[in-house]
Design goal:
Structural class: alpha/beta
Number of strands: 8
CATH topology: TIM Barrel
Order of helices and strands: HEHEHHEHEHEHHEHEHEHH
CATH superfamily: Aldolase class I
Distance between the termini: 11 Å
Radius of gyration: 18 Å
Strand order of the largest sheet: 1-2-3-4-5-6-7-8
Number of helices: 12
Number of domains: 1
Shape: globular
């Protein structure tokens, strides 16, 4: 069932486990994610990015995701979130399309500009009872910053600014930077756990970690213990999907039924998401 992202994350925070927020860009990925949620009886969030909507068509992809959630999730709470909205206009479009949660990423702006943009989004979205995730600190992408010249201390979330940011913006959740990175960007060898502890102490809302797709179980559990309530997962399920797609296709270029290769790729996503759910501790929490 389509459920409030704020309610899903608030419950996870109260009960000290984490929820996965999984990015999808086609029907098979959406189905695989929701099938895993039902299998493991776990709440989760389905996410769509602006780039995914550009590829598939915003309304088409959103309606597809909503249909998958409605038809396949049974009574499992599943949220639907816009991931990394960069502008107010993008967020407004997402609200009009029917997302029930949005992320506004003002992390590349100055602190004051980030506050102003995020508060504007919050004021707008809350009128429609839509929850908002903000971001403070920079989680880098491959090609954005030269890894050999990176100064992580300048990218990570400043704990002392989190209280001001959350109070002035009214965000429902906060994405933080503690040495994590998107995609294949080389992260710090160890996350800044003390920084995470301070952020958690200074805020009273769910904390979200992006770029942790490849984190091992021990690191994930340490993050949850430090206050992380939600993990964004994109790269890992895309890799699972493509690995199985390529394996199933292999030298079978004579295959005329795409279901022969897309079905196994969907199942690979289901298995990967179920694996993540087990690590996050959200199994049987629906």
């Amino acid at each position: 069932m389509l459920a409030s992202v704020k309610d899903i994350l608030s419950k996870a925070k109260r009960e000290n486990y984490a929820v996965g927020a999984f990015n999808v860009s086609n029907m098979e990925m959406a189905q695989g994610v929701v099938m895993a949620a039902v299998e493991r009886r776990s709440p989760l969030v389905v996410q769509i990015t602006e780039n995914a909507m550009k590829y598939a068509g915003a309304k088409e992809l959103l309606e597809l995701a909503k249909a998958v959630i409605t038809e396949r999730s049974e009574n499992i709470p599943v949220g639907l979130n816009l991931d990394h909205g960069k502008t107010f206009d993008m967020v407004r479009r997402a609200v009009e399309l029917g997302f029930n949660a949005v992320m506004i990423d003002g992390s590349r702006l100055s602190f004051l500009e980030n506050i102003n943009l995020t508060k504007r989004v919050v004021d707008f979205a809350h009128k429609s009872n839509i929850s908002v995730q903000g971001e403070l600190g920079i989680v880098p992408y491959l090609g954005e910053i030269d890894v050999t010249e990176i100064d992580w201390s300048k990218l990570m979330t400043d704990p002392q600014k989190t209280k001001e940011f959350t109070e002035k913006t009214g965000v429902d959740s906060l994405a933080v930077a503690i040495g994590n990175a998107h995609g294949f960007f080389r992260e710090t060898e160890e996350a800044d756990w003390e920084r995470l502890k301070q952020i958690n102490q200074l805020t009273n809302i769910p904390l979200v970690l992006h770029g942790a797709s490849d984190w091992a179980k021990g690191k994930v559990l340490a993050a949850i213990q430090g206050g992380i309530t939600c993990f964004n997962v994109d790269t890992d399920i895309r890799l699972a999907f493509m690995h199985e797609l390529c394996r199933a296709a292999n030298d079978k270029c004579s295959v005329t039924d795409p279901r022969k290769v897309l079905g196994p790729a969907r199942d690979a996503v289901r298995k990967k998401v179920a694996e993540k759910i087990n690590i996050f501790g959200s199994a049987n929490k629906a």
